[in-house]
Amino acid sequence: MTGDPLSILVWLSAIFFLCGFLCMIVKRNVIGMLIGVELILNAANINFVAFGQLSRLGIDGQIATLFVIVLAAAEAAVALAITLVFYNSHSTIDADRGESLRG
Amino acid sequence: MNDFLFVALAVIAALGAISVVLCRKVVHMAASLIVALSSVAGIFFSLNANFVGATQLMVYVGGTVILLIFGVMLTSMSAKAELKTTPIEAIAALASSVLLLLVFTFTVGSVSWSEHFKLLAGDAAVPKNLVEQGSSSFSSVALALVGVRTDQPNAHSYLLPFEIISIHLLVVLVAAGYLARPRGTQQEADSTAE
Amino acid sequence: MSNTIAQDLATYLAIAWLTPLLSFVIAIFNGFKWGRTSRNAAFAATAAIATGFVSSAIAMNRWICEIGGWDKLLHPDHHEHHAYAGVFYDLATFGSLKLSISYYIDSLTLTMFCMVTFIATCIHIFAMGYMSEELAETYDDHQAHVTRPGRFYRFFAFLSLFCFSMLGLVIAGNIFQVFVFWELVGVCSYLLIGFYTERRSANVAANKAFIVNRVGDFGFIIGLMILWTYTGTFTFSNAHMEGAAPGLFEIIAAQATGASEAAHHVAAHGALPTVPQTLLIIAGLGIFAGCVGKSAQFPLHTWLPDAMEGPTPVSALVHSATMVAAGVYLSARFYPVFTTEVLTVIAYVGCITLFVAATIAIVATDIKKVLAYSTISQLGYMMLAIGVGGWGAGLFHLITHAFFKSLLFLGSGAVIYGCHHEQEMPKMGGLLKKMPVTGFAMAVGCCAIAGFGIPHTNLAFSGFFSKDAILATALAYSKINPSHSLLFLAPLVTAGITSFYMWRLWFYTFTGKTRDRHVEEHCHEVPKIMFIPLLVLSMLAFGCAWGGEEGVLYSLLHASQPESCAISDAGLPTHHHIHESHETAGVLALTSALLGFALAYLLYCKSVISPAAIKEQLKPLHSFLVAKWRFDELYDAVFVWPSKRVGGFIAGIDRNVFDNAIDGLAASAVKVAKSNRRFDEVVVDGAVRASGEIVSALARTFRVIQTGRARQYVLFVAVGLVLVVAGFFGVILPH
After folding, report:
1. Whether the Cβ atoms of residue A79 and residue A37 lie closer than 8 Å to each other
2. pLDDT at B194 (0 to 100)
3. What is the ipTM of this complex?
4. To probe the interface with A, which of C701, C712, C714, C716 has the most A CB atoms within 10 Å?
């Protein structure tokens, strides 16, 4: 909990991850879960940029972040499409209703 | 001043993220998410990562979140009853997140990051970090993506990953469009095919 | 030139030899397909053996041309061998031991080929009629009281195999090959004697023939081994061919004649091996033991009468004309190897045999048994002739005997066929009216075997000439060796006995009153296919020896007469001696035969003296003869009973000791197996089942956490992550 920016950012990333995780567990709404996923991906992004910019690793961190952002966009698109299909077939977006994979 | 802004943005981002968890309604969650992601974009700017910051604003805040809100609008027409979390789930979630927090405390907290950088700084061969260099990394990132490295001429460029990821994005979007098409259309297509 | 004729002869004789094998293979493999009622097998076999005869005759003609025509044959300038030896095929070489299928062809081989194939052809044709009752899907065997499928094709297949074996024996150029075909002939004999396998008597007779022959073959093997050990070769002779290794005969001859010829051989081939004199005698006796078994000589003669259990054509072909003559043939072939001592033994064995068998034949009532004993007796004559140095005479009798004995057997077969398988002469009688052709043929046969003829003319039956030759040789021999005069007297007396029992047979069967009305009513003349061979054979039985010792047949045989290794001894008569005694012997033999005929005529045709009265007066002698001199009882007591006791004792040991031990072993094996089974069931199966249970239980447990809810999965991932980190930092890293 010192003032140096790197540890602040690492902690911020940890908070984002925990929030995303909680979101995924707690929200029964499928879109809530997706928002959690976005938060977790952003936690990773924060780390990439922080270590890339504040250490001497160069621009690689930024580029990785860019790829993550693009992948997150793609994931969001597909996930939303699945959500729509789920909604169409179950008439709800309650994630607990989709349990046909139960063992 | 810069430090203050930096810390303030970090705090705002953390609060935004926490409010995402705490909000009940999806629209509120989305709004909180916008706040959190925008603050993170600000942090990126302050770290001299202009390109990433801009992309964060445009794609995440401007694209993904809007996409989520579209999803909310498309699916919440008949969902009057709120989807409540059961207490057992809440307790389990809390317990597991506390456990994860302990893990983070153990891992992140046990490392003195500034000490590490000081150790690294003693090595003259290693270039200074980008924040200390002070120059914008915008153009070098952009050029690296299309195959030209200006910062480290001998390093690999990212042209091929860039192309792969772009095609991947295209395929995913087409697939998403196909998945989300209205049911009736498919049946009509099937019947005409027959 | 010499090579080509050898090849020609070998080729012709090989054709004659191998066609019956072909017919056997065809009949055996196609017989079932052709069906029980098909005559194809008989046609194949007959065609094969007839081909063999034609081929043999061509070979004979080729040989006569080679020596310079018939005149040269009848009046040879000097004694010269026209023998040819060679190898068809090398089977294997083991060090110095060379096994090959080879040939040794001289006039004896050729004559035997012609005789065997001709008689076999006649008998095949006869058998087509005789065995026709087998041409049925079901055949009722009245003796064994069973109904079984007919076995027509099998009979002819066996006959073909027999012809193949017999011809292989005759053509063989080495003793090893002789031995192989010798045994093959024995196998055929076994198969044919036991042809009616359902009859116990046939089985016993087949076994007896085989086992008694084994006794002789044992001696044969010993002789064979001695000869091979000392000479290192199986080959008979190199036939005086340049460059060929010397055969047995050359080696023995060189040893007997001494250095002069040996020196010649030494120059060509190095020192020749020699056989110690004692071992040479043992070897000769051993080989003669084989001949004793095969030719049913005393003391191994007991199998031949029992062998009459086979069908009558078999008796005619195998057990009178050809196979039993194989022993005589082999004795003649090995004549050069036999020493004086061996020849004496041969002569006495023949002498005993001819007398013993003839006496038994007097009292036999079964028509085929009479002929069987007469066969033994005649074979004894041949052996005697060889033993007293009458090589040509013995073989002369072999050929003439083959013709008239096959004729007599076929005649008896015709009688048996005509009387519906009645073989007992006391039930026959007066058959001449019903079966004139058969009766006539049998009469010719009886004249031939009795040796009727007019001295000083050619008008005589074949048996006259051959028996005359034998008796002349025997007389000459007994003149030179007065201590062996029994060797002349016994055959002389037996000539009378022979005539007596043969005419007894004829009168019993064909003249007089009907004794059994049932037999008489059903009696009929045999069909054409059966009496044509009879007529052909009766012509030959009369005329095959035309000219006597100046005739073709004797000259043919005489052309290949070998030099005995015992010739240097003064014991054997020379041609001169024999010629001197010819006159006396001929007259004596004829007188003896006529006396026998007259006695038979008086007893059985005119019934001047009642045979029953004589039987009553000489009852002990009669029962002794009926019991066949009690040879079977003697052998039972001396060999069979002790071996059975020893066998029983050993069987007891087997049962009580070995069986118990093996039972114990088996019981312990069962126990071990049972405990193994328990181990299997409890431990192995238990382990398998337990592992299955564990997997299943685990599955049931983990099924609970497969809730299908994505959010819970996320929770599990987090918990898992915490556990991994805690495990890593808390447990693994400290160590």
Report:
1. yes
2. 46
3. 0.89
4. C714
- Nearest of C276, C290, C241, C545 to residue C396 by alpha carbon: C545
**Nearest CB partner across the interface for B100, out of C711, C722, C729:** C722
Q: Is the peptide bond before C299 cis (omega within 30 degrees of 0)?
A: yes
Calculate mean pLDDT across residues C337-358: 88
A49 within a domain of the structure (yes/no): yes
pLDDT single digits (tens) C31-67: 778 877 788 888 888 999 999 999 999 988 888 888 7
Ordered DSSP codes for C159-213: HHHHHHHHHHHHHBSBHHHHHHHHHHHHHHHHHHHTTSTT-HHHHHHHHHHHHHH
Among all residues of chain A, which has the CA nearest to that of C706? A103
Determine the Cα–Cα distance for residues C329 and C108; give it in Å rounded to an integer: 9
Tokens 């964060």 sit at which residue? B56
Residue C732, both tokens: 């693994």
Question: DSSP H helical segments within C601-684, as ranges?
Answer: 611-617, 619-626, 631-635, 641-653, 659-679
How many helices (H) and strands (E) chain C has is answered by 30, 4
C719 touches chain B (CB under 8 A): yes
- List pLDDT tens digits, range C520-558: 677 777 787 787 888 888 888 888 877 777 777 887 787
Q: Please report, for chain B, the start and end positions of each structural domain, with discontinuous segments joined by +.
A: 1-75, 88-133, 135-182
Number of domains in chain A: 1
**List of chain B residues with pLDDT < 70:** 1-2, 76-82, 114, 117-136, 183-194
pLDDT at C264: 55
**Residues C534, C437: Cα–Cα separation, whole Å:** 8
Which residue's structure tokens are 């693994």?
Answer: C732
C714 touches chain B (CB under 8 A): no
Assign C87 to helix, strand or coil. Answer: strand
Bridge partner residues of C98 (DSSP): C93
Residue C734, token pair as written in the block: 């400290």
pLDDT, tens digit, 9 for 90 and up, residues A54-99: 877 778 888 999 999 999 989 888 988 888 888 888 877 788 887 7
Which residues are CB-contacts of C725 (< 8 A; sequence separation ≥ 6)? B103, B106, B107
Pick the CATH number of B1-75 from 3.40.50.1860, 1.10.238.10, 3.40.50.10860, 1.20.120.1200: 1.20.120.1200
The verdict on residue A45 lying in a domain is: yes
Domain residue limits at A64: 28-91
How far is the C-alpha of C83 from the C-alpha of C105, rounded, in Å? 6
Nearest to A66 among B18, B55, B129 (CB): B55
Answer yes or no: are the C-beta atoms of B157 and B147 closer than 8 Å: yes
To the nearest 10°, the Cα dihedral for C662, C665, C671, C672? -140
A2 domain-assigned = no
Partners of A98 on chain C (C-beta within 8 Å) are 708-710
With contacts defined as CB-CB under 8 Å, which chain A residues touch B128? 56
Q: Do B92 and C722 touch (CB under 8 A)?
A: no
Cβ-based burial of C197 (10 A; exposed 0-12, middle 13-18, buried ≥19):
middle
Cβ(C392)–Cβ(C111) below 8 Å = no
| Token pair listed for C71 | 């005149």
